[in-house]
Amino acid sequence: MIEARQISVSLGQRPVLHDVSVEVSPGEVVSLLGPNGAGKSTLLSVLAGGLRPASGAVTLDAFPLEQFDASSLARRRAVFSQQQGLNFGFQVREVVALGRSGHLGRHDDDQAIDGALEETGAAHLAGRSFQALSGGERQRVHLARVVAQIWPGENASAEAGRFLLLDEPTNNLDLAHQHGMLTLARKLAQRGIGVLCVLHDPNLAALYSDRVVLMENGRIQAAGTPRDVLRPDLLEAVYGLAVNVLDHPNRNCPHIIPA
């Protein structure tokens, strides 16, 4: 389990997170929802180890995150960030191979790279220059890179306790690839990987999440199953928009439309 307990963060003089606690277990998909500025990406950065909180603690399997060296942490968790800077003329397959740098030339590197490209719908881009890709294509390639980093090997039981942290992964993607992205998150969860995903669309969260955490102004307003959290009263209070919550016509989950 990766867990944050009573996390508070300030950026400069501005408080961003206030006494926030959240956890992600192997085999589940947890979505962070909330309006812009709610603190979702900041919380993800704290869980990833990229930002140290002013108070509170983050643990990985009950050990403080700072006890892990960079290589060990990279093998246990991968992070898909909003900002993905890469200005070199790498081919796509070379970009994805960067995700294997913490594995020291394991025999299954090629399998992980090819599998991640295939799963993310980017296999046809493997030989192209990364710089020649569209924004959405680049996003899929970066996703393939982080998936390759924690790719489930042949021994599935050995892969438990790995985590994928996704910060707004559906941005810049068309409808089919948004659902493809989150279908992959579910597949990885079924293989024992814990997935935390920052999303803006509550309907995507409803379709693909085991649990939803709803944030506002740096605090958690509700956490639980999609049906527990995606309620008209909570959504209107947090987003300031009246909504109707219906039953999805094909899936056993809520479906949200503006009132």
Describe this structure in words.
This protein is an alpha/beta fold and 259 residues long. The chain has one domain: Rossmann fold (3-Layer(aba) Sandwich). It is built from nine helices and twelve strands. The strands form three sheets. The chain has a six-stranded mixed beta sheet, sandwiched between helices. A four-stranded antiparallel beta sheet has the order 2-1-4-5, with helices on one face. A hairpin with a 2-residue loop joins strand 9 (211-216) and strand 10. Helix 4 (109-119) runs antiparallel to helix 5 (135-149). It is globular and about 50 Å long. The termini are far apart. The model is unreliable at 155-160 (pLDDT under 50).
Entry summary:
By secondary structure, this protein is an alpha/beta fold. Helix content is 32%, strand content 27%. It contains nine helices and twelve strands.
